[in-house]
Amino acid sequence: MDAPPLVLRNVTKTYRAGNTAVHAVREASFEVHTGEILAIVGPSGSGKTTLLSIAGCLLRPTSGQVFILGREVTGLGQLRLSGFRLRHIGFIFQSFNLLPSLSARENVEIALNLAGLDGTRAHERSDQLLEMLELTPRARQRPPDLSGGEQQRLAVARALANRPDIILADEPTANLDSRAGHQVMQLMESAVSAGEAKGLVVVTHDTRILDVADRVLLMEDGQLRPAERS
Amino acid sequence: MKRALSVRPRRVPLATRTLLRDWLRLGISVGGIGFAILLVLLLDGIREGTVAKSTTYVDHVGADVFVARQGVTNMALAASAVPETVVDQVAATTGVREAAGIMRIPIIVSAGDNRRPATLIGYDLAHPLGGPWQLDKGRLVQNDNEVVLDAALAGELGRKIGDTVKVAGEQFTIVGLSGQTANIAGKLIFLSRPAVQRLLGIGSIVSFVLVKVESGQSGQQVANAINEHLPEVTATPRQELSNNDRQLLSSLFVAPINVMSTVGFLVGLAIIGLTMYTTTAERMHDFGVLKAIGAGHVFLFRTVITQATILGLAGFAFGLAASILAGPVLERMVPDIGVAIRMASALQTLGAVIGMSLVGAALPVVRITRVDPLVVFRSQA
User: Fold this and answer.
1) CA angle B260-B277-A58, nearest 5°?
2) What residues of B are in contact with residue A122 (Cβ under 8 Å)?
3) What chain A residue is nearest to B16 in terms of C-alpha separation?
4) Confidence grade of residue A229 (pLDDT, cut at 50, 70, 90)
5) Chain centroid to CA A8: how far?
6) Category of B227 on φ-ψ map: left (φ > 0), alpha (ψ -120 to 50) or beta
């Protein structure tokens, strides 16, 4: 059986402010299974984004372990971590974080180029993703010329470009109206179902997302616990 | 389905796209770098062209060997006087076809209140060797009260053929206007040698003896023969004398031109550095995003260095084109100077531009190493 796309075991992140220790994340553990959509909800400042940063190999935990496809990444150096992010993790951010000087198509293609795919293969893959995300007519537009929903769909396309093992989404619907937010979530769900990504973790305030999540965790004061679904 | 024809690059040209995003800034940057390149190339071109033009008399008068006072191997800034009898002695030397003595002194020419410095050439009317070689208008001097004037000098003095100018207190009638005779060391005017000797009150003396050699003889051979035959004078072949003059005049220009070229280089460097710094600083969030999605430092450095190199090369192309266009305009505006843009100088400047681009990219590269990929979780301003 394949190793789970993402496992966090007893992850703690502590910041020091003078003599005071601030525990952003305390002993957090969870596992995302293949094909699973996991939602992490919680109030602002509860440590959700810190947890996502650690899961995405952007931040080192103070203690604990992170495994991606069964491989521990906690001790990897910066260079190997960036390569690891490129090949195994797709990111979706609240503020889209697209490159404004590139066209929609190029925003997808650059992720492919970074992973070593270029020329016709990169063109075909980016065209396929734009079609899947219903962005083909907007392929030559730059992000500032796209609506919020289109920009987030484009961010999803970029995240899926290298067929990541896990997608980490930070408040992906926060800047979208309900229709656009619903569409983005449906597309992400379809992408996981279609095997474009092995698993999805969504950090959110948006209760509508809970409808598509297979499992929901609640984060409060840096601690994770299963949430009760109404 | 109808599809628009477009060529898609093999890889996303991030550096070019980032530069093209702000046309105004790109234009200002390329213009600024181009101006610095223009300054560097034009200054070098003016030095080369002006120095080359300063030996116009030596290069065009038609003599193969120049004979001067012993030890004098220059014409520019040289004080030379030899007895007139030397002319015949030189003419009698083996290999000499023709010898003519000339007077050559710096002088002030005036027309009314208008006064200009010039170089006066007094030549033997019986031997046209030594006189003007290109007449734009009029005829050669035939009498001792006539003068041929450099055309640009005549223009500055507001005089034309048939008018008079005053040289050393005496009036001379302009009978011809010469071309190729303007240079920074003084525009040339031509009188008969006896007229110059009379003006200066010195008879039986010439400044230089100009020599044409027999066919089959080289200037060097004949110069050696003269030096052996007449030890009280020094004979120098044309090319050597021309090179000596150019080196001498060039050395007068080198220090100030080098200072100005260095200033131009530093201006270019500052523009590339500032443009790269501001472009990178503005796009620091984008670099953070690229880092977050997995771009390595090599990719980011390559992007910044490519941007700087594109800027530098575009500025160089603009500056080179502007220099080539500006040269003839400058020569028309200031006839004393020449502008010669050398290939070697252009290549040297190109090398310097590539160096400037790498230095200009250094600071942004350092900043990129420090950018935190966690910026992706902060909202953009």
Assistant:
1) 155
2) 11
3) A101
4) low
5) 15
6) alpha
Find the Cα–Cα–Cα–Cα dihedral A28, A33, A39, A45, rounded to 10°.
Answer: 20
Residue that is written with structure tokens 């530069």 in the block: B19
Q: Which of A188, A134, A133 is nearest to A166 (CA)?
A: A188
Beta strand extents in chain B (DSSP E only): 65-69, 82-83, 96-111, 114-123, 135-138, 146-150, 164-167, 170-178, 187-192, 205-206, 208-213, 233-237
Say if CB A212 and CB A181 are below 8 A apart: no
pLDDT digits (tens, 9 = 90+) for B191-206: 999 999 898 888 889 9
Mean pLDDT on A193-218: 89
Tokens of B148: 């041929």
DSSP line for B127-159: S-TTS-S-EEEE----STTEEEEEHHHHHHHT-
Q: Which residues are within 8 A (CB) of A206 and not within 5 positions of it... i.e. 6 or more apart?
A: A171, A173, A174, A181
Distance CA B282, CA A55 (A): 28
Size of interface A-B (CB pairs under 8 A): 82
For residue B305, the 8-state DSSP code is H
Q: What is the mean pLDDT of chain B?
A: 88
Judge contact between B153 and B187, C-beta under 8 A. Answer: yes
Q: Which of A87-96, B1-10, B242-251 shows the lowest mean pLDDT across its residues? A: B1-10
CA distances from B320 to B36, B52, B346 (A): 10, 21, 8
Q: Which residues contact A227 (CB under 8 A, 6 or more apart)?
A: A41, A216, A217, A218
Closest B-chain CA to A49: B377
**Model confidence pLDDT, tens digit, residues B273-319:** 787 777 777 788 889 999 999 999 899 999 989 988 998 899 999 99
Gap from A115 CA to chain B (nearest CA, Å): 8
Query: CA–CA distance from B218 to each of A143, B95, B223 (Å)?
Result: 75, 9, 9
* Ramachandran angles phi, psi of B146, nearest 5°: -115, 155
